[in-house]
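Figure 2 data, in text form.
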Amino acid sequence: MREFIYNEAGIDLGLSKQTLVSSRLNKRLRHHQLDSFDQYAELLLNKNSIEYQMAIDLLTTNETYFFREANHLNLLKSLVLEHHPINRNFRLWSAASSSGQEAYSIAMVLDDFFGSRGQWEIFGSDISSRMIKKAKSGLYQCHRIDAIPKNFLRKYCLKGTGEYDGYLLIDNKLREKTQFAEINLTKLLPEVGKFDVIFLRNILIYFDNKTKKNIIRSLTSKLRSKGLLFIGHSESLKYMDLPIELIAPTVYQKK
């Protein structure tokens, strides 16, 4: 299974991650009445199968929540938005968007900043088709939403009632400007245009240095001149020969 997930997603689930692999896949082994992960791996040879996508989903889905590492959103405003030409469409890529909370958090910030004065759009991507489906829905359970500023909650989040009690729905005006697609960052990237900013947070820790370097080079090719790349606070790109330079903690600019 370690070889499978490395080949398909570039993620190295070494010995320290064996418990994670077992806990996430044991239910699938029981479902198929299999005795070993080697037997399960044989089911995954068909990349078009439902089981293949399910395994990818289970092994790559990471925790996320609204306004995580919120200092980045303050830096986004001070380093980029306040200097962005108002007559040029602002484009941002949430490159490991999981179930969409990061992308929608940024969308709230952009709409609040630009209002009717400027155009903006967000593109979110993830390797998991299940996460992309959830992100597109914009529907979330009302837990771990304490970090959303109260004025943003009132302005951009609709509280569910009846069968949707305990859920919130992201306002349609934000969902219309936030698109999502299934993308594997370790493979050849599709044509998605150029971006002013790319967020790639809390995912690099799962890759080895070679894969990490390839992903960063690939993504920076999608940045406009002097565009910015944001990575997670626990991540580092030190000692890597890359076409970017550090301009603030965990914020890099394309050279």
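Caption note: The CA atoms of residues 5 and 190 lie 21 Å apart.
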